[in-house]
Every structure is written in C-alpha cells, then in structure tokens.
Amino acid sequence: MSYQRMAEVYDRLMQDAPYNKWVTWTRHMIKKHRPRTKYVLDLGCGTGEITTRLAQTYQMTGVDLSEDMLAIASTKDDRRTIQWLRQDITRLTGLSNYDCIISYCDVINYIIKEEDLLLVFQHAYEALDSEGLFLFDVHSLPHINNDLIGRTFAEVYDDLSYIWFCDEGSVPGEFEHELTFFIRNGEVFERFDETHYQKGYSPLYLKEELIKAGFSILGVYADFSDVSADEGERLFFVCLKK
Fold first, then answer.
1. Residue 156: CB partners within 8 Å, gap ≥ 6?
2. CA distances for 186 relative to 118, 145, 190, angstroms
3. How many CB atoms are located within 10 Å of the residue 15 CB?
4. Which of 89, 208, 215, 232, by CA, is between 20 and 30 Å from 116?
C-alpha cells in the first residue's frame, strides 16, 4: 500500500504512537540474538520515526513505496547517514548483507496476497547476512476482529479532522479502512478520502511461510514483551536466517 495524501498528516495522526517501545524492543532483541549488528534495513519505514531513532545506534536503510513518506523521512535525517530507497517490498532488489531487517507498524498486514507475503519473506531472507535477524509485527486476529472491524474512529483538531471506518473485506481475512480527512486550507477545509486494505494472518500460517522462505523462528511475542506468547493486540516475530 502506497500512502497517498495521508502522508501529509501521518505524523500528526501517529503522534502518540509508541515508537520508543519499538526501538527499545528492537535493541533488546538484537542484543540478545545478534549483538554485533551494524547494518539494519527498515521495510515500510514510512516517515522514518523508527528508522531515525535506530540510526543513533546502527547504520540504517529505510525502504518505502511512498515517495511522499520518504520525502518527509529524509527531512528528519539531520546527519544524512540514512539511505532512503523507494521500492516495493514484494520486489526488493539490490539489497544484501544486512545484519537485521525490521518491518513494524503492521506493514506485513498490508500484504494482502498470500503469494506476495511469501515473496516479502524470501526477499528479506536474501537481503540478510548469514545468521541475520528478521523482526516484524502484525495485528493479531483477535485484535482485528474484536477491536478494529466494525469500529469507527474520529479525531477533531483546529486544522485537521478525520473519520475512519474499519469494515470486513470482501475476501475472508481482509479488512478495509475507509478514511475521510478534512484539512484547513486558508479559510476553508479541504476534503480527501483514502481506502487502505489489510489482511490478518494466524501465527501458525506466518510461521509456515517463514519456514518456506528458509527462516528459523526464534520466538513470537506480544505487545513489546520478551516473553513468548501467541495472544495480544500486536504480535512480534523474531526470525533467524539459517
């Protein structure tokens, strides 16, 4: 999914996102499983909030499909140490020898075709060095079914408001986000709409596809924990390239 005009307001909408928790969890898992990590690839880096934080410790590469998101991310890279690349993560090219690959904020849920999901895992495997780590998260199925589908979310600010409907998709397992934004433009508010599509995957299915790609699964964790669990709102996978 390539964010369109939503890139303009993404950081405002995500201002309360627990980015530091992703960063802390990542550093913890790297220290535990590959402490000599230097090169890290961020798939679906968005506006670079996680990428730039991790750049304080690692040499980062950020990949995203949206030019607008990457343009915003690059403005946060004051030291110009991060490589920003526009690529589709189902068709990665020219990337190799990374110590660790990350993909957070339910980027994997945006891969709605099962054949594309395996391609993402295969490309991640190929881009890693031997014994490299692949860390990613997904919305859990209970969270999707109980907390997202059928719900309406809204926020109103002085210069921005949005309405977000989350509905079940036409294909089993898929769900749709219908978003309407109103952004102040001078004396009037301008409206734009976007539709985003995601898919939920069971932990078992994800494990099977990761194994097909060649990975060993070191653990599955819930909600930034380091205790193995298959239940929670957000599941984190720690995978090793054999």
1. none
2. 46, 40, 9
3. 9
4. 232
